[in-house]
């Protein structure tokens, strides 16, 4: 039974990495420069750090089976760890930037990615 859980975790990890790669390419297409991926600090993890113009964007990527699950995944309370991690990471990426924000990229089956600006 434990082996099954480990396999489930590895499969979830692979799905997460694929979702982040898709989101990174989508944001590049929209004119963002990806600065970092999967950045971890004591407060939590940020999936992608991007920049467009003078704005640093901390991006949470969510791959979900439907819109209801996606809405629940980016509820304000759910983003508190991302917000705390972004605050710790800001000094690392602040040089030359005028501001920062937290965005989300939602990936749903058989749809274009949905980029939600300023969720946090």
TrEMBL record:
It holds the Pfam family UPF0102. Coiled coil: none annotated. Transmembrane segments: none annotated. SUPFAM superfamilies: Restriction endonuclease-like. GO terms for molecular function: nucleic acid binding. InterPro entries: Restrct_endonuc-II-like, tRNA_endonuc-like_dom_sf, UPF0102_YraN-like. HAMAP family: UPF0102. Belongs to the UPF0102 family. This is UPF0102 protein B5C34_04490. The lineage of its organism: Bacteria, Pseudomonadati, Pseudomonadota, Alphaproteobacteria, Sphingomonadales.
């Amino acid at each position: 039974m434990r082996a099954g859980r480990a396999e489930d975790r590895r499969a979830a990890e692979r799905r997460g990495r694929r979702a982040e790669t898709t989101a990174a390419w989508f944001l590049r297409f929209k004119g963002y420069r990806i600065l970092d991926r999967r950045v971890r600090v004591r407060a939590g993890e940020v999936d992608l750090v991007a920049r467009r113009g003078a704005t640093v964007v901390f991006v949470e990527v969510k791959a979900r089976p439907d819109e209801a699950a996606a809405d629940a995944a980016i509820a304000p309370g759910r983003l508190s760890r991302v917000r705390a991690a972004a605050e710790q990471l800001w000094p690392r990426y602040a040089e030359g930037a005028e501001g920062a924000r937290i965005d989300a990229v939602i990936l749903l089956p058989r749809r274009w990615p949905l980029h939600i600006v300023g969720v946090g």
